[in-house]
Amino acid sequence: MPPGGPPDIAAPQIVGIIPDSGTLGVSPKEVLFRFDEVVSERPVAATTLADLFLISPRDGTPNVSWHRDAIGVRPRRGWRPNTPYTVIMLPGLADIRGNVRNTGASTFFSTGKTIPRTRLAGRVFDWVSGTPAKAALVESFVRSDTLHPYIALVDSSGAFAIDHMPPARYTVRAYLDLNKNFAIDQSEPWDSTSVSLADTTASTLLIFKHDSVAPRIRDVIAADSVTLGVGFDRPIDPSQTLTTGNFALIGPDSARVTIVSVGARAVPVDTLKPVMPRPSPISEVELKLQRPLPSKTTYRVRAIGIRGILGYTGDSERSYTTPAPPPPAAPKPAANPPGSPPVKK
After folding, report:
1. Which of 67, 110, 205, 318 sits a CA distance of 20 to 30 A from 158?
2. Whole-prediction pTM value?
3. Domains of the chain, CATH where assigned
């Protein structure tokens, strides 16, 4: 910029997208996003420009090319005939001065003669935390073609929408694609369902890690003199009703301490966030005891028949030592120590 000019603090603005939304019977060399200034080849919010674009239905990672004030997007293996497409630009594109767009954009067209007026919408939650699964990837595909799913990203409120899919029965799955490989890895939470799409359909997915190991005791802490908090390393099936028969507290003399009741540890609820249609699994349990436990004594806490959210059940045990009593409070100094002159009033 020549000296004396005002600083550029505006993010790049779209001045046109080719082809226009709703265009029929086209197979462009690439979908072109044009901007009012030169955009950066190296986005701040992503590794490459290709990470900021989605093509639905997907056919591998899109081929993205930089043309100074325009960006071209196309499938690596070309546009398929008689197919409705949606091309999505995600937030994160920046100009050469580092001003970043915080909004995305999209266009849709068809290589055939029609564009279906359909919509699959819904929400995706992290089932364990009970919060919206922001940035989860949603895929919808028919059984005969699992390689070209229609896709969308979940927004910050957990919502998603996929438009212009041909009417059919679809398998819908959502997952957190942590390594961006468009596949569900063992450590990534996911969920799936099946829907029949004719015009508009809604679906809610609750993603979680599909772990085949039963929950085990992770730690034991004293909530108060007659309450023990027991934490598990995996979530517990919310349909399992836990009772005193699922737990045992055994002292050093092998005698059992009576457990009066068992309940889930209270978790604060954010009333401003969307609410899941099913309760969240728990991983924290409180045991109410009949009497306080003596200090500096080791007990064995046993969990019996605890079922995980995939139905796997197991037992576990952990040692717990009650804390030492707090030291006595130091005596307060006398207001008028012996031998000191009397205080004048």
Report:
1. 110
2. 0.83
3. 10-115 (2.60.40.3710), 116-210 (2.60.40.10), 217-267+274-321 (2.60.40.1220)
